[in-house]
Predict the 3D structure of the following.
Amino acid sequence: MRQRIALAWKEFREVRWVLGVALVIFIALPLIGGIEGRKMNHRIVFDAWPWVMFLGGVLATVVGATSVCRDLNGPLAEFWRSRAVNVGRWLRVKYCVGLAVIMVACLLPLVIEEWTERRDGESVHFAAVLAAWFPFVWAVQYSFGFVCGSLTRRAGPAIMLALALSLLGYFLPIILPPLRSLNIPEVLMYSLRTQSVGFRGPVPWVPWSVPFSPREQMPFAVTAIAVSAAAFALSLVAVRREWRIEAAQRLTYWSIGFAVLLLFASAAFQLEANLPVLQTIELGHPGEVQTIDSDGRHGILVTDARWTSTYYIPPAVQPMEIAADGVRLGPAVTRRQLRMARRIQAWLPEHPNICFVLSLVWPADNQAPRAELVIVTLPGAAATPITTRELGTSDLHLANPDLRLNAVGGRLLAQWQRDTDHMDAALIDVTDLAHPRVLPSRAFGGHDLTRDQSSRNVELPEIPGLQFRQRLAAAVDIEGLELAAIQGDVLATEYSPDPLLIYRFERVGATTTAATTRPPHDYAAFRQVGRYEPTLLEKMMNPWVHQVAGGNGYIYVSDQTEIFGTRFPRITVFDVSDPGRPRPIGHFAAPEEGPLSICPLPDGTLLVGGRRLYRLGPPPRR
Amino acid sequence: MRQLIWKEWHEQRWKLGFGCVVLCAFALIGLRTRAVPDESIMVGTCALGVLLLPILTAAGLIPAERGEGTLRTLLALPVAPWKVLAAKAILGAMLCAGPILAAAIVSLLMARGREISNGATWEIYGRAVAVALFLFAWMLWSTARSPSEGRAAALCVGVLILWLLATRGLVAETHPARNGMAESHAPFMLWAICPFVLVFPPADFAPMEALALQAVTVAVLWLFALRALKFGAMEEQS
């Protein structure tokens, strides 16, 4: 016992500098920051957690490596051999004292923060959550340093090797889905979500009320303890058997290079693009594709307006012909030529050479704006015959200019927001291009009637002569269901960072006047049957969805991520043949700056528009 | 001279292998997986090379010899000191440029001009080689009197940060419409000695003129490094 105490005292004397470092970095620096921010916060806010979270692991690695190297290198190693001290006992005491000092150095600032910030009234403090879970991370990093020190017996290479190991230990679970349960950010998130599924009361080893989900969080804690114990056992064997790695500079460089490449490869192969590029077509002007409409033989591209530092690129409409040998684009018709302020365009397969544009014109005498249907005959930018047909103000509620135009069953459906809850719609018959007619139509809810994720009721617009599928397609395209797509009986909505939810069509229902304040109408009832949870890497990249489209048995999702100011647009293809288990089977990343517009074609290929137009082949069969 | 280069080659060749493996693997994985556009992968590969290779090379030439105590022996040989430094500089240039060129070849073979042309690919990597060589010249001079490799590496990191900050200060604003040209009111001579001039060229950039001035800067730095090497050796002897 006395020998153990003596050894512990000696070890403590040698590692107590860590407490000094912690006092300065983890307590004094946050305190200075708090005093500096006193004017803004009206009090001293002690935020130690960022310092502890980011530097605690480095400190643990350094202490683990240096404490063991100090006594195993040079004459001190001979000295210890000559003493009547059991190597196992000596190493155990060394390990435990170092670990205890690290824990005190890192936990003390968190305890102070938790104590000073209690008056905030938040139910869960981040400092308390860190104090509950980060000791496991520090223990692993300390053990990595310890085992690397035992094997190399030189502090510099041992620290570098341990940092490489820590890098792998920290990031591999984030990148590789099978190691998900070992991912510390995910573990922290469970404790921060007070309403977690599987919440079973507070974490038992901290005195604060930190939410605990044993099923999700315990594997992490158990694995961390097991890894630490294994590392210590390895260092014990290495010291006893005189195992030694000649830790030259080369080993250090190669190990770090290998760790970085392994992480990069794991991340890259998870996000790899596998959709073959069949054709790349230059647009011929500097616009960026906003929408693509096509029936597989003809179509149009609409490019968005863009400002550069020196000039303005007006929006444009461009005709498109699709043949077996490829896609051909016609000359662009810029919208500036059409003198329009706010307008929406649509394309009908029945009139392949015409682009319909809904335009609002404000008279000079401050009267109510009037709607015009502009008919643009494509192609021929210079000599485009543009004809305008007035639709009249009486038929369209034009107070709110949030107007949209869609092609529905050979007709045009104009929609606009009447108020926060209601959409209005007007059907425009363009069978006779010389005399387009506004057909009488009725108010259109346009909103999903349910708020529950497990089912969705999609209101169907009352359009005479339309099949159920056409009404459903029109309904999906309206406000509130923008990021959704129909593929057969399957409705897919939303995507990362939220899951992709898959619903299956169940029945057509009808509302009663008692249910809503509006007249009764039909709706299509869907029930949720599956979901795709984005991987941690996908969540980390935090993309926002631009478009969801369905076709050829797949759901296509176009999203965009921004990392350090650089945008990375991507397309993900989901196989929904089994709606209960949607699977990502294809990816595509294009060298573009803005989000990508997509249009699945009946031949299985996919048109993708950015600053160029790409025709992509179907995803590989798996 | 050939023997000196042979000696340096035998000591440093693993770094060439390391640089080639890391950069080529990075380019290969990135271009194979196509998770991001080809140009981003190429620029990333170049950035890795430019940030890593000059430090790795410069810290391992003179300071490593001094740290191990072999520099005195080397300078005591019947060889002019400039030849010793020239051999080190030649090999250093090879270690900086070799991996980036290898990555360029891998990129050309993998991408085959699918997103950006082969000419543009060569331009990206060519600029990276030039920047790496200019940085190496600055680091060779600044570490010529360093007593150990570790301290030299820290010094190299300092030089790199200094030039990155200086470049940021030099570049007032960049315009995408002007093809990445930097809008700067800094004197042209200041730009001329900046290692990153080829990455952020000023608006009135004349490539050949700037390259000629960079070559003069590199020659002057090499002379400074030679002087530092000689004085360092004399100090050690005294």
Notes: The two ends of chain A are 64 Å apart (CA to CA). Confidence is low (pLDDT under 50) at residues 393-400 of chain A. The longest strand of chain A covers residues 500-510. The CA atoms of residues 456 and 526 of chain A lie 5 Å apart.
